[in-house]
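From the shared-data thread, chain only:
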Amino acid sequence: MTKRPLRPPIAFGLIVIGDEILKGSRVDAHLSAFKGMTGERGHELAWHWLLPDDPEVLVAHLRFSMGRPDPVFVCGGIGATPDDHTRACAATAAGLELVRHPEAKALLEEKFGAEAYPNRILMADLPAGCELIPNPINRIPGFSLRGHWFLPGFPQMAWPMAHWVLERFYGVSEPVQERAFALFETPESSLIPVMRDLGDRFPDLKLFSLPHMGENAHIRLGFRGRSGIEEAMHALRERLERDSIPYREAESDALRA
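Structure, as tokens:
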């Protein structure tokens, strides 16, 4: 099998739209799914918004995100009912007209025939100049605009469409690795000098401190990144031992002092 060339890592945004999620009648499954889809390709999900079906809110947020370089997946609100505002809000945020997309119109007419009119055909009214995203489940497309990939809210449709986008346009990058030590009976504040020094020493890696509460309370201290993890962890081990901070290897129960 030919190994695919590696691309630079990409930080994606995710916007999930729907009053039903905010009010609790449905649970958002998109966050964990998109973290997995991007992460398994060596990319990352850098931020996540959960927004209501409110045109003013949607336009303001989309206008902001369209001004940033991050590619963004947007799930929800592209249907034909009056509470589906995403298509029109995307057009407004981009300063474009909402027009009937000829390819989307043809797909809807092929699928629904005469029943496409007068309501279902509204799903073909899209921002001028946008491109379609194929929907392998029911053939009703999503669309792309200004680095944003607009998908249905239904996971059964959105996730296969997102897979298609990622495979076609973004490829794979060097995978992210994470290594950590477990620190017991150590106040997190005492780690600030350690983190400042080693964070400056390894700027291409993310040094993190993650407290775990409860019966087995401890702090998970380590590095996350694409290269140089072993060298950074060796330096962290040396620093903990120099400062007499007890730690436990994350993969074993052997306590060091």
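The helical segments are 19-22, 30-39, 55-66, 86-94, 102-112, 155-169, 192-201, 229-242.
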